Automatic annotation (TrEMBL):
PANTHER family linked to this entry: OS02G0527500 PROTEIN-RELATED, PROTEIN DUF642 L-GALACTONO-1,4-LACTONE-RESPONSIVE GENE 1
Keywords, in A-Z order: Cell wall, Glycoprotein, Secreted, Signal
Positions of the DUF642 domain: 24-186, 197-364
Main location: secreted
UniProt-listed Pfam families: DUF642 (PF04862)
Protein name: DUF642 domain-containing protein
Intracellular or extracellular location(s): Secreted, Cell wall
Annotated source species: Ziziphus jujuba var. spinosa
Zinc-finger keyword on record: no
Length: 374
């Protein structure tokens, strides 16, 4: 009997872990399964549990792609349906996770009314109050079709958590608010420093889930808005987001993932690494473009310790890259390595979308040569 009980416990634990390991959309994460006609009044959802797998609160609308709002035609990025959150409205879903592990959430959002629309994304567990991140402003749109995907990171403090997306805005029209679609979850495996690279995740291969049917990448908000960065090892140390790219939709210099610096000096990433004062180090990286019509004279600025370098890259907007490096002498036990773009740049497809240089394959090693020597 004892052996049977132990076996049952082990099977349940294995089953729970197996359930939590799938990366991708949450159950009905793209809202393709909607309310029954009796649970709706026009586009307004009347019942808290009318949308399968979700619980709603407040003024929530179920929107079909092509729905007209005045002169505006609402387009859904993936599938045929999305939800719109009015004033103080929210949607939430409880999901199984692995306690103590690191996760990222990806979701798509679009404005429908005001320029100052905002969102709050929260994680909570049964025995503790909701853990809020700072408000995520979505007034700056980076894609040409009005939709952007965002990522957030969190450490699971229980075996199941509740993911909540909330519109804290107060507009004159209570129905005004952002559209939400394609909510996904990914288990992250933060890489460690190795003898081949003193930086963590220097090739950016570990990062948030990239929605397969979208072509605009994933925005990683600034560190001031996200305590746990969904880009392990790196801090988004700026006022605006950086963009996480995949090789399925863009050109990246190396591997399957890269980072696009999309907002000039307001879009920067950094990492603090342990160094030995007096030793000389070599920082190497690749600079390129994402094959997304980002043309012109792009410049990446790299900083390490007291040294910096400007790397120009003449982009034709069709993909490509070049190597760059910076040699420096460490002056402290902790050295901040940072990258940003010198200029604001827009794509030449007349969409007005912000773009910038792509960086990838960032490596930091102890140099065998002194600064100034080839």
């Amino acid at each position: 009997m004892y052996k049977l009980t132990v076996l049952s416990v082990l099977l349940c634990a294995t089953w729970n872990i197996a359930l939590s390991l799938s990366d991708g959309l949450l159950p009905n994460g793209n809202f393709e399964y909607g309310p029954k006609p009796s649970e709706m009044k026009g586009t307004l959802v009347k019942s808290p549990n009318a949308i399968p797998n979700w619980t709603i609160s407040g003024y929530v609308e179920y929107i079909k792609s092509g729905h007209k709002q005045g002169d505006m035609l609402l387009v859904v990025p993936e599938g045929a349906f999305a939800v719109r959150l009015g004033n103080e409205a929210s949607i939430k879903q409880r999901v199984k996770v692995i306690k103590g592990r690191f996760y990222s959430i990806t979701f798509s959002a679009a404005r429908t009314c005001a320029q100052e629309e905002r969102l709050n994304v929260s994680i909570s567990r049964k025995t503790k109050p909701t853990s809020d991140w700072d408000i995520l402003p979505i007034q700056t749109m980076y894609s040409s079709n009005g939709w952007d995907s965002y990522a957030r990171g969190f450490v699971a403090d229980d075996w199941d958590v509740e993911i909540l997306i909330h519109n804290p805005g107060v507009e004159e029209d209570p129905a005004c608010g952002p559209l939400i679609d394609s909510v996904a979850l990914k288990l992250l495996f933060p890489p460690k420093r190795t003898g081949g690279n003193l930086l963590k995740n220097g090739n950016f291969e570990e990062g948030p889930y990239v929605l397969p049917n979208t072509s605009w990448g994933v925005l990683i908000p600034p560190h001031i808005q996200d305590v746990h960065s969904p880009l392990p090892g790196w801090i988004v140390e700026s006022l605006k987001a950086v963009k996480y790219l995949d090789s399925d939709h863009f050109t990246v210099p190396e591997g399957k993932r890269g980072i696009e610096l999309i907002a000039g000096k307001e879009s920067a990433i950094a990492q603090v690494v342990y160094t030995k004062p007096g030793l000389v180090y070599d920082l190497s990286f690749l600079v390129g473009d994402a094959n997304n019509y980002c043309e012109g004279s792009l410049v990446v600025e790299a900083f390490a310790g007291r040294q910096s370098v400007k790397v120009p890259y003449e982009s034709k907007g069709k993909g490509g890259s070049k190597p760059a490096s910076l040699r420096f002498r460490a002056v402290s036990r902790r050295t901040r390595v940072m990258f940003y773009s010198s200029f604001y740049t827009m794509t030449n497809d007349h969409s007005g979308s912000l773009c910038g240089p792509v960086i990838d394959d960032v490596k930091l090693l102890i140099s065998r040569k002194k600064p100034g020597h080839a």
